[in-house]
Amino acid sequence: MDIRPGDILKMKKNHPCGSDEMYVIRAGMDFRLRCVKCSREFMVPRNKIEKNIKKVNRPGEG
Prior knowledge:
Elements: E1 8-11, E2 21-26, E3 30-35, E4 41-45, H1 46-50, E5 53-57
Antiparallel strand pairs: 1-2, 1-5, 2-3, 3-4
């Protein structure tokens, strides 16, 4: 799955604050994500994130 820094991920499950959108800060073996609503940052392993992604929004593309 092609995920780059700057993408906004729409997740299957909500963050505890209620938002289901996460901003990608860093991508690699681990992802550093920021919640769009509450701005909390956290690191998550790639395999855990990839199975919970519903949609990838890339700003600047169609």
